[in-house]
Structure formats: C-alpha cells, structure tokens
C-alpha cells in the first residue's frame, strides 16, 4: 500500500470526512500523464490530426490531453519544436483559468520550470509582456529554456526576490500568477519523496513564506487587475487561510467566480478558516475577525481539485480581483504615454548608433518575413536582442533574458539563435527545409549530427536553412554540398 505520513492521513480524514476512503484508495491507482498544446503554434484540433500518440482530451483544459504511460512525448521532435509542454493535468488549471489577453502585462512570480508561464506566454500571442521570475538560479535557467522552446518572444526572465520586484513594479501588471511554493501534498503519488519529506509543521512553514509572496504580488497588481493564487497542496493553512490573510491585509482584493467553472471543481471551504484547524496559539484571530460574513462565504468561489473526483493529482486555486478600475480595462488598447514616446526616440538613437555594428543582422533579417520594430533591436557585446514592446524597469534587477535573443554577430557574420528559429513560423523564412516527423534524419539532427539533404528538398543549394518538422521550425543548419551542418543548440540536443 502507498505509504502516507500518519499525521497527514489524520488531517485529511478530518477535512474529507466520508470522502476519505475514496481519496485514500486513489493512491493505489496509476497516475495520469498530460500534455498541453502551445496555442500560439497549433490548435488542439490540428495537433490531434498530427499527433503520434493516442490522446484523450482533459475535460476542463481546452488545450490539454492525457497520453498513455508508454508514450515518450519528451523524445518526439514536436516537443523540440515547442508544440506542447508535458504537465500534470491539474497543474494546467491555474494558467488556463487566469484570463490573459494579447497586450497584457503578465507576471508569473514563482514560475520555474515554466509549466504555467509557457501557457501564459502562449496566450499573449507575442503581444504585451510575460515577466517570469523564480528565486532559484538553476530553476530560472530551466524556465528560460522552456520559455524559449515555446518560442515566446516578449518575455522577461527574472531571478529575484519578490520584495525587489515590488520596488520596481508598483501596480504595474494587469495579471499575476502566484503558483506558490507549498507543502506539495498533491504531489505525493507523482513524487513519493515529497510524502517522505512531509511533516506536520510543513504547511505552516510554507504559509509563512507564502504570506510574503502574496503581499508583494498584490502590490504589483494594478487596480482592476487579476491575481490567480494556486498551490498543489490540500492544507487549509496554505489555501483558504492564505486567501483570508490577503483579504485582511489588502481589503481591496475580492475572490472572483471562476469563469466557465468546471463542474468537477469542488468549492473552497469557508469552515476551514475556523479555529479548529490550527493549534490555538497559531490561529490568527485577527484574520478571522476582520473578514465580513460575505468575504468568508466568497471562499466558496475558490476551487479545490481532488484526485478522487477528477483525473488530476490535486490543486487549489483562487481568482482574485483588485478593486479599482474596471476589470475590462485590460482589454483596451494600451495608452501611449509621453514618457514612452521619449523612450522610443531614445531607442531609435541607439539603433542608429549601432546600425553599423548591426549590418550583418540586418542582412540576415532581410530574408525574414517579420514586421520588425527596429527601435527594439538592441546589441550587447555582439549579441542581438529584440526587447519587448512593453518596456519594464529592469535596472538593478537580476534577469536572464529581456526579450528574444536573436543571435550573435561574429566577425561581420550573423549567427541566428535557436530561440529565433523556434519563434518563427515556417513561412517566415524563405529557405526552409520541411521533413516529416518520422524521417529518421530529424532524430540525427536533434542529436547534433550532420544530415544529408536531397537537392529537391531545399530551395537554395547553400547557406542558412530553417529545418522544420511537419511544418514546424526546429532549428538552423547550413547547407554545403548536400550536407546540412548542424546548428541545433548543443544544450538542447537529444542524448
Ligand atoms: C510550485 S513551484 C512553481 C512551478 C511553476 N509555476 C510551474 O508551473 O512550472 C514554486 C516555485 O517557487 C519558487 N520560489 C520559492 N520561494 C520563492 C520566492 N520567495 N519568490 C519567488 N519564487 C520562489 C521555487 O524555486 C519554485 O520553483
């Protein structure tokens, strides 16, 4: 029988009451595997036609599918061309529910390795800004890779503490996701080590950290904006009690109903903020007393995903609105402020200044069917970037990327980047070679090998080529005498 910490079992019996036996039996069932389609590259319908695996739609995620235990989607070329992300099905829910529109300024505050940030970025369709942050350096690097594989051009990847971000971005973002570090009680079946590491104090330890994170997030949201708070745990301390704490500390926040709420979501539980859920000395009477009956009742707007009720491991979600401007404001065209114009003028000066150094890039860019805003091209130590149109004050912050890394200028030649390749559509580069997914040369290419190209497969017999798999860009190569020299990024290669 799957081993659970006894104190956890006791707590869950109290929360779930007569549902507990079904919950407990669920640990003996095989777990479900999910993949989520990159909606900026392909529609679920198109992917179903193309998919090499058997897929079953996830009922509450419009671009999510279950796949079979024996499939290996992480080794398929479509994974490398950013067509999907592998993700536990209930973890797909927060980014699916947060209403993000192209043009929004979006922050994912605890983003690594990017399961939710990639969906938020795909929803932006290249317009607006995706700021994705993680406090851990190694995890932020994994986040950068996943955002790049997804081809998201308008991203800012940060490695900061929330307090520092809050200094730079007061009331700046339209939408914020806080997928908080938590005690991970919904991860036990997927990762039995989390169950071994669990102890009764863990939820409270996490709650202390979450309080700081959620307040800093609240301060970075503009009035009228929306914040989605989620955890993959069941404990009231990290869920209903955390939302109550926010409403006490920031009374301008209210819990919104989840749009098109899936019938399988269980409501949040107002009674879980009552005294019996914490040892007396830890119970925050102030929080409880400060909330109105209406606020307490609105906790039912939150959603609990229970693994014995739905095909997912478990999650908690709360969609919050910050009172102020109307929520619809985020849908309007951004207002061009005077300050912004000045910045543009300044940028075009710098573009002029760099124009000579950038000549090799401009020569290459002539062959790309991209509607560039040249004021956004920046070059630093030979590396060329396309910074997001929505500028963010990054001064003094640790960031790994601001915008799309386009490539490098080396001795008067421009070497396009892997990130640029996967951010393009096949039709945007005239010299594209398109091979089907089952052509074994694709696997050789992904391993970093040189591959042979027949004359009729390439439009031009030499020079840069964009290698595509079934119509989706995978990476660059240089064609010389029928051989495609491999330019697939070494750190992304298939081993
Ligand atoms: C639940 S995981 C996020 C998973 C991610 N949203 C995804 O879907 O792939 C929580 C993340 O929060 C990060 N974290 C922990 N404390 C943090 C803090 N104070 N500020 C920002 N990130 C933090 C951890 O490094 C971890 O990557």
Report on the architecture of this protein:
It is a single chain. This protein has 495 residues and is of the alpha+beta class. It has two domains: 323 residues, 3-Layer(aba) Sandwich (Rossmann fold); 70 residues, Roll (Archaeosine Trna-guanine Transglycosylase, Chain: A, domain 4). Helices cover 29% and strands 22% of the residues. The chain has 17 helices and 23 strands. α1 crosses α2, α8 packs parallel to α10 and α10 packs across α11. S-adenosylmethionine binds next to α10. The site of S-adenosylmethionine (SAM) has 19 residues, from α10.
Alpha-beta classification: alpha+beta
Main sheet summary: 10 strands, mixed
Helix content: 25-40%
Quote the beta fraction. Answer: 15-25%
Rg over CA atoms? 24 Å
Number of domains: 2
Quick one: CATH class of the largest domain? Alpha Beta
CATH architecture of the largest domain: 3-Layer(aba) Sandwich
Low-confidence regions: 329-348
How many distinct helices?
Answer: 17
CATH homology-level superfamily of the largest domain: Vaccinia Virus protein VP39
- Average of pLDDT: 92
Write down the CATH topology of the largest domain.
Rossmann fold
Distance between the termini: 36 Å
Overall strand count: 23
Bound molecules: S-adenosylmethionine
- General form: globular
InterPro entries: Methyltr_RsmF_N (IPR031341), MeTrfase_RsmB-F_NOP2_cat (IPR049560), MeTrfase_RsmB-F_NOP2_dom (IPR001678), Nol1_Nop2_Fmu_2 (IPR027391), RCMT (IPR023267), RsmB/NOL1/NOP2-like_CS (IPR018314), RsmF_methylt_CI (IPR031340), SAM-dependent_MTases_sf (IPR029063)
GO molecular function, one term: RNA methyltransferase activity
Protein name: RsmF rRNA methyltransferase first C-terminal domain-containing protein
Keywords: Cytoplasm, Methyltransferase, RNA-binding, S-adenosyl-L-methionine, Transferase
């Amino acid at each position: 029988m799957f081993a659970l910490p006894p104190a956890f079992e006791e707590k869950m019996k109290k929360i779930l009451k007569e549902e507990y036996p079904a919950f407990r039996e669920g640990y003996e069932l095989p777990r479900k595997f999910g993949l989520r389609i990159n909606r900026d590259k392909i529609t679920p319908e198109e992917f179903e036609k193309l998919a090499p695996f058997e897929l079953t739609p996830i009922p509450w995620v419009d671009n999510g599918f279950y796949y079979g235990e024996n499939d290996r989607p992480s080794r398929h070329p479509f994974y490398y061309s950013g067509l999907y992300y592998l993700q536990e099905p209930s973890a797909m829910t927060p980014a699916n529910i947060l209403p993000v529109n192209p043009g929004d300024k979006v922050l994912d505050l605890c983003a690594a390795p990017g399961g939710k940030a990639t969906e938020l970025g795909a929803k932006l369709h290249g317009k607006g800004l995706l700021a994705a942050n993680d406090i851990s350096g190694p995890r932020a690097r994994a986040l950068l890779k996943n955002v790049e594989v997804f081809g998201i051009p308008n991203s800012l990847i940060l490695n900061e503490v929330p307090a520092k971000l809050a200094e730079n971005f007061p009331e700046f973002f339209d939408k914020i996701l806080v997928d908080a570090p938590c005690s991970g009680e919904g991860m036990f079946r997927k990762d039995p080590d989390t169950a071994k590491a669990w102890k009764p104090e863990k939820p409270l330890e996490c709650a202390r950290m979450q309080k700081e994170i959620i307040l800093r997030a609240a301060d970075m949201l503009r009035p009228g904006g929306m914040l989605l708070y989620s955890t993959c745990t069941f404990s009231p301390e990290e869920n209903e009690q955390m939302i109550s704490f926010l409403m006490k500390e920031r009374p301008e926040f209210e819990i919104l109903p989840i749009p098109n709420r899936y019938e399988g979501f269980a409501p949040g539980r107002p009674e879980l903020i009552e005294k019996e859920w914490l040892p007396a000395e830890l119970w925050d009477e102030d929080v409880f007393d400060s909330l109105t009956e209406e606020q307490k009742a609105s906790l039912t707007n939150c959603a609990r995903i229970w693994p014995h009720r739905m095909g997912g491991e478990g999650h908690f979600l709360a969609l919050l609105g910050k009172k102020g401007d109307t929520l619809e404001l985020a849908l309007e065209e951004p207002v061009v402020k005077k300050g912004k114009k000045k910045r543009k003028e300044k940028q075009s000066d710098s573009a002029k200044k760099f124009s000579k150094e950038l000549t090799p890039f401009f020569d290459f860019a002539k062959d790309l069917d991209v509607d560039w805003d040249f004021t956004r091209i920046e070059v630093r130590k030979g590396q060329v970037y396309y910074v997001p149109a929505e500028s963010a004050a990054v001064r003094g912050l640790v960031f790994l990327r601001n915008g799309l890394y386009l490539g490098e200028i080396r001795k008067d030649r421009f070497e396009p980047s892997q990130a640029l390749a996967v951010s393009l559509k096949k039709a945007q580069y005239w010299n594209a070679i398109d091979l089907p997914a089952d052509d074994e040369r694709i696997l050789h290419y992904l391993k970093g090998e040189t591959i042979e190209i027949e004359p009729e497969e390439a439009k031009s017999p030499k020079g840069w080529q964009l290698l595509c798999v079934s119509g989706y860009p995978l990476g660059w190569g240089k064609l010389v005498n029928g051989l495609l020299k491999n330019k697939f990024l070494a750190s992304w290669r298939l081993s």
